[in-house]
Amino acid sequence: MQAPGHAVRGRAVSRRRTHPARRAAFAAGARAALPGLPAMAVWGVVTGVAMVKLGLALATSLGMTFIVYSGTAQLAVLPLMATSTAVLTMVLAAALAGLRFVVYSALLSRHLARVPLGLRLGTCFLTIDGPLAVLMQAQARGPLVQRVALLNGANLVTAAAWCASSVLGIALASLLPLGAELGYLAVLALLAFTVPMLQGHPAWAAAVASVAVALAGAGWPHRLGTFAAVLAGVAAALWVSPRPALVPAGPVKRG
User: Fold this and answer.
1) What are phi and psi for residue 111, nearest 5 degrees?
2) pLDDT bucket at 254, cuts 50 / 70 / 90
3) Residue 87: per-residue pLDDT
4) What CA–CA distance (Å, rounded) separates 53 from 47?
5) Helices H / strands E in the chain, number of each
6) Residue 196 CA neighbour count, 13 Å, CB half
7) What pTM was estimated for this model as a whole?
8) How far apart are CA 127 and CA 159, in angstroms?
9) Are the C-beta atoms of residues 217 and 228 closer than 8 Å to each other?
């Protein structure tokens, strides 16, 4: 029978042996996220400029950058904040703009099911479009080892790029105009960022449905067309996503 001390030392050695694999996966995730960082940086600068141009104070702008951590939700809420819209309406707008994270949560659930709660919450907070695409693309290439480390490697560099570029936009807001040129640059950045993510039937279904509804609702008041497009994209992705096969129950043994 193995002594308790040997068992403890064995577990410690086992943990040390997993560290190189974890570090390698973390570095691989960070490297895989690098191509999308320029587009992310442009999007962050545009969001930072928009926050200041629409009248937000410095502390509020920085708070939204680090706490909200979603350019889509921030840009959906900013015009409402500028017109002193009711708080409940702004919360609803932010929730609708972030509906895609419902799909993301479903995709991440099987990867994070056995992860400690603190790490799970931190990973979920940091996981946005780019890092999730890194995980999905790596998974498509074959079986993954240290999936959470790979995802968090992409998460860390993406969060650093977003926060740094958004703070840069806040700092340069007085020098950069919030005009059509900056808006077109943001659209191009989003295209460069999202097109590589169009892999698999759910992604294409979401893209086609959301674009169709957005075009149909372009003239709707209060940007309802945009929110309807988000709902249509999420619904299409959920509809097309493969459903787990049901395992039939075996015969009940009676004693």
Assistant:
1) -80, -30
2) very low
3) 87
4) 10
5) 12, 0
6) 18
7) 0.70
8) 9
9) yes
Taken as a whole, the chain contains a residue count of 255
Rounded distance between C-alpha atoms, residue 153 and residue 150, angstroms: 5
The token pair that represents 71 in the structure block = 């350019």
DSSP class of residue 62 equals H
pLDDT of residue 20: 86
What residue type is 230 in one-letter code? Answer: V
pLDDT 10s digits, 7-58: 445 444 445 445 788 899 999 999 999 988 988 888 888 889 888 888 889 9
Tell me how far apart the alpha carbons of residues 168 and 253 are, in angstroms, rounded to a whole number.
67
Per-residue DSSP letter, 217: T
CA–CA separation, 34 vs 219, rounded Å?
Answer: 37
**What digits encode the pLDDT tens for the residues 193-217?**
566 666 667 777 777 887 788 788 7
- Dihedral of alpha carbons 100, 78, 166, 50, sign: positive
- Between the alpha carbon of residue 198 and those of residues 44, 111, 205, 224, the distances in Å are 22, 21, 9, 25
Q: How does DSSP classify residue 243? A: P
CA distance 71 to 64: 9
pLDDT higher than 90, residue 70: no
How many Å from the N-terminal Cα to the C-terminal Cα in the chain? 36
Determine the pLDDT at residue 13. 44
The arithmetic mean of pLDDT across residues 121-128, rounded, is 92
Question: SS3 letters for 47-93?
Answer: HHHHHHHCCCCHHHHHHHHHHHCCHHHHHHHHHHHHCCCCHHHHHHH
Residue 176, SS3 per DSSP: coil
Rg (CA), the chain: 22
